[in-house]
Amino acid sequence: MDTARRWLDAALQNPAAVALFLDFDGTLVEIAATPDGAAAPEALARVLERASAALSGALALVSGRRIADLDLRLAPFRGAAAGVHGAEMRLDPAHPIKAGEKLDARVRDDVAELTGNDPRLLLEDKGHAIAVHYRLAEQVGPELERRLEHYVRDTDGLRVQPGRKVVEILGDAVTKGDAVRRFMREKPFVGRRPIMIGDDRSDVSAFDACAALGGVGLRVAGEFFHADEANFASPEDVRHWLGAFSLVSPELRR
Asked: What are the angstrom distances between the C-alpha of 221 and each of 94, 161, 201, 228?
């Protein structure tokens, strides 16, 4: 915690030296009963706009959600973003979204069959990933993950990505860590020390990428990170810190 606090204090004092990467669900907003139920506080868009300005644009969302979904939930804020764990990328808010090849349609059908069409499970086709949300049936999580792991062992080019009450199948070359590394090769991110804030297993590759680039990964308490090992107690705690960070530049205090 002391090391993490030093990183946060350094970011507040010298934002020109850092790049900030943020997960969405469980990090910026609380986990909801369904993915569509996730709601951003009204003030969050303005806080993100101010924080991005303080960082001269070196702030990016790195999420399992599609970028269009993030834009909708955080309007009018629109920034650099990686969606579907990096399968979608927007290096600059003025540029279009670039995306890799979508999964074969048969994968969705196979996953639907593996889940047994259980009405408690929500199947989400993101184009570049198939997510199975089990927020309404948490007890089936381990068995669901086992089934999908067995499926990808017999299917080239795919991997399983577990998250908070969700298991996804996506391309084996797609990770949040790769997304962070790509951002860090581009202006205005290049040459800065990266900080990633996240709350679950899908964020670990981004934490590792930040550490390899001289930065750090900061954890939000939840189902994956226990409060004793977390750097933030909740999404509200993250938003509170971002609110303070967004006022680091005197010209932004107005």
From this structure: 34, 19, 12, 8
